[in-house]
Amino acid sequence: xxxxxxxxxxxxxxxxxxxxxxxxxxxxxxxxxxxxxxxxxxxxxxxxxxxxxxxxxxxxxxxxxxxxxxxxxxxxxxxxxxxxxxxxxxxxxxxxxxxxxxxxxxxxxxxxxxxxxxxxxxxxxxxxxxxxxxxxxxxxxxxxxxxxxxxxxxxxxxxxxxxxxxxxxxxxxxxxxxxxxxxxxxxxxxxxxxxxxxxxxxxxxxxxxxxxxxxxxxxxxxxxxxxxxxxxxxxxxxxxxxxxxxxxxxxxxxxxxxxxxxxxxxxxxxxxxxxxxxxxxxxxxxxxxxxxxxxxxxxxxxxxxxxxxxxxxxxxxxxxxxxxxxxxxxxxxxxxxxxxxxxxxxxxxxxxxxxxxxxxxxxxxxxxxxxxxxxxxxxxxxxxxxxxxxxxxxxxxxxxxxxxxxxxx
Length: 409
Hints:
Elements: H1 27-39, H2 49-61, E1 65-69, H3 72-83, E2 90-94, H4 99-107, E3 111-115, H5 126-130, E4 137-143, H6 152-162, E5 166-169, E6 177-178, E7 181-182, E8 189-193, E9 206-210, H7 213-223, H8 247-257, H9 260-278, E10 284-285, E11 300-304, H10 312-322, E12 328-329, H11 340-343, H12 371-379, E13 380-383, H13 391-408
Parallel strand pairs: 2-3, 2-4, 4-5, 5-8
Antiparallel strand pairs: 1-9, 6-7, 8-9, 10-11, 11-13, 12-13
Helix pairs in contact: 1-8, 2-8, 3-4, 3-7, 9-13, 10-13
């Protein structure tokens, strides 16, 4: 089945966040990198670009501390290390997430305990988290998936009741807001990614933020091999990697930071326009956003009802891709706990560590425990998004969705 005969538009190339067409790079980044090279100082321990990026990002977040690092995965690892779990303790997290968030937990000897998600927001909830809390729980890691904030008041109240620190994975959620407050500033630690496709990018890069002096100190040390830079008698205080951001990356990050507000405003405005254009399409629901929240659209997600649209996300996705809208049914092909690292406990040699220390219920991945997860993955169709989208791109995407659904019905 094709819509080529009914679509009166030729295929319109869409800006892509994987190349310059969808990114905001310009003379500012070139000048910053040139200045860093001319300085001859490319390590952030002695340079100024990364330090300035940290200072400016902390100001944007209205927080005391920000520490840049080499990737979003490094940021999450740094956050888990700051919490400092004992081997075999559990960190509750989401079943729909990037492996970088989960390897961070495993590398610190802790066990991910997966919570189910709301099938419409794709986020964990206070209720799903509470079902996972045990005497071994050390912390909670929430992910604001696609830029849509979790229900943080309920989650934070739950965490306070059990005296659990909250790590916010904001890799996809720059400047997203929960009831007027910026995500990443609500819990104890916020983690951000500067990977290629994020709201601003350095290719790879990350940053962690906090208002807690104790966590900030451990994060700074962990990024720096636990070497106490600036201390009277520094030493390597504990086991830690080198996760530092270099000055070339810091220079790009600083230049990109000036463009963050523009990037987010553009993504939100174009996403809201698409919502208006397709909100009455049968079998397709637009993003579910709580009133008072700001979704900042790392990607734009459609909820596709297979009872209405024959073939569901696979059929609709195929038709959209044929017209140049390179969408992804399911986002991830399976829940995180079905990946081989969890299925076969592939970690350090043949030890099975830290799974060999886990309580049996932490390793119970029975599908009936995750109805929201399986429903969400079966129905979600993820559209690419970019701050370089213009009205013509939105009109094209909207028309392609409408025509594709009409052809399938």
